[in-house]
Amino acid sequence: MRASFTPVVPQRLRLSLRRRRPGADYDARVTELPARRPRRATASAPEPLARASEGRVAAHPSPLLLVGVALMAANMRPLATSVGPLIHQIDSGLRLSGAAAGLLLTIPVFCFGAVAPLGALLQRRLGMARTVALILCAVIAGLLARVSGGVVLLFAGTTLAAAGAACGNVLLPVVVRQRFAARVGSISALYTTALVGTAAVAAAATVPLAHAIGAGWRGGLAIWAAPAFVALLVWLPQLRGGRAAPEPADNRQARMREVTRHRLTWQLTLFFATQSWGFYATLAWMPSVFESHGIGSTSAGLLLGLSGIMAVPAALAVPSLATRSRDQSRIAVALTAITLLGYFGLLLAPAGAPALWAILIGFGQGACFPLALTMIVLRSGSARLTAGLSTHVQCVGYLLAAAGPFVIGALHDATGSWSVSLIVLIAILVPQALSGAGAGRARTLSAAGAPVGA
User: Fold this and answer.
1) What phi and psi values does residue 207 have, to the nearest 5 degrees?
2) How far apart are CA 196 and CA 198, in angstroms?
3) Residue 248 lies in a domain
4) Which residues does 391 contact at the CB level (< 8 Å), separation at least 6?
5) pTM of the model as a whole
6) What is the pLDDT of residue 405?
7) What is the pLDDT of residues 343-385, one digit of tens each?
8) Which side of the chain, N or C, has fewer Cβ within a 10 Å radius?
9) Does 14 score more than 70 pLDDT?
10) Nearest to residue 174, comparing CAs of 108, 107, 217, 129?
């Protein structure tokens, strides 16, 4: 006989608990939110802050926890974006083939998807505080390992660091949901800005840092272990408290399955997947598109940098804007339309106003990413569901996104032109808009189920 579970919910949410047959799985239901718009958006009630000392982060959010979350987010992208600017030096130094160099650039995105389920598993076994500390240790170890030897260590270290970042990607929305439920918009803006901001900084600063350090590409990559070590030091106070007790196996199984079956989960997943697919394809090939129309390589690189910089103000503004409304459908469609305008300009007149096309694409894509992460929090009725939803969305989304650069490059090789590739990128925006409109509706996933054997 297992103890019955009674969820704590606000009056406006109606959760019906259904008695299930012995051995039946838990399920998730969607609760439609009322049309009335409150003064402050409250998508769902935060779960109780009990048992915070059992391997979890501090029950009451502190400034140190806020800084820790921001620093954790800031170290999830430099491991990936610092490699591209140095790939030619790495290639010549280790004599990598073109295929090996391409694989090195693909490993982080692939790991972001393939390793994502490990984050929720570790969190349930170790607790949030210990899991985040382990993630940061993995990132530090991987960043140092990949510059410590030859090709094997380069790939092994990159994989280890990317695996740590994959787990961190999944758990960031969970920390926000658990400890900052009343400030989802502002905290989401903070950590997504840290994500995209440090990604842009790493892409722009790695080569100058490599020259300043004087150790070649190894120094340029190794330097990014320093901010990860600072993040670990700031996070260490969260480890105070007792050891977290592992949860029953039945609960773990329910968490893995309860969000997968619902349409809302797949709408969120498709929105995240399509925006990530377009982003990584654009990141890989935008300079080549500009260069093919007579724009110099230096200018093309600056246009890509301009596109990346536009993600910073987008990440600052969009999460707060999204949480002020109970329905984010119009925001998702509008941001997709901005990206569409940029792609149309790139297709029809790439050299006519290249800076404008880069700004439109950068802002549209840069805003859809934090919107997707914010909607993961807003659409889940508890931190327990946030973990499952975040895992599902990012696992499938990043696995699909890893194919984006390859598909766009293959289309160019097959046709000898970028036109077909750009048409495909435009076509991808159709499911992005439709799934974003569906995922943005005022609904929340809520746990529903009866204890087995009661």
Assistant:
1) -65, -50
2) 6
3) no
4) 116, 117, 119, 120, 170
5) 0.75
6) 85
7) 999 999 998 999 999 999 999 999 999 999 999 988 887 777 8
8) N
9) no
10) 129
CA distance 314 to 365: 9
In a domain? residue 415: yes
Answer yes or no: is pLDDT of 157 > 90.
yes
Band of residue 269 on the pLDDT scale cut at 50, 70, 90: very high
Q: Return the H-helix or E-strand segment holding 365.
A: helix 354-379
* pLDDT, tens digit (0-9, with 9 covering 90-100), for 174-221: 888 888 877 888 888 898 889 988 888 888 788 888 888 888 899 999
> What pLDDT was estimated at residue 447?
59
Which two structure tokens, joined as six digits, stand for 391? 């895992």
Sign of CA dihedral 384, 68, 168, 156: negative
Residues 375 and 440 sit within 8 Å (Cβ to Cβ)? yes
Q: Rounded to an integer, what distance in angstroms lies between the CA atom of residue 295 and that of residue 288?
A: 9
DSSP-assigned states of every residue in 250-275: HHHHHHHHTTTTSHHHHHHHHHHHHH
Q: Which token pair is 271?
A: 């929105």
Tokens in use for 127? 């607790």
Structure-token pair, residue 62? 């502190």
Query: Does 125 map to a domain?
Result: yes
pLDDT for position 29: 57
Structural domain span for residue 77: 63-238+258-448
Tell me, what's the pLDDT at 368? 95
Helices marked H in 63-222: 63-74, 78-81, 87-94, 98-114, 116-126, 128-145, 151-179, 184-213, 216-222
Residue range 328-340, pLDDT digits in tens: 999 999 999 999 9
Evaluate if residue 304 carries a pLDDT over 60: yes
d(CA 34, CA 224): 46
Coil vs helix vs strand at 66: helix
Closest C-alpha among 94, 83, 102 to residue 221: 83
Measured over the CA atoms of residue 130, residue 383, residue 317 and residue 341, the dihedral's sign is positive
> First-to-last CA distance in the chain?
6
**Rounded to whole angstroms, how far apart are CA atoms 29 and 304?**
42
Rounded to whole angstroms, how far apart are CA atoms 426 and 340?
6
CATH of the domain at 432: 1.20.1250.20
Sign of the dihedral through C-alpha 119, 122, 126, 131? negative
| Percent of the chain topping pLDDT 70 | 80
Tell me how many domains the chain contains: 1
The answer to whether the beta carbons of residues 275 and 364 sit under 8 Å apart is no
The angle formed by the CA atoms of residues 119, 68 and 127, to the nearest 5 degrees, is 35
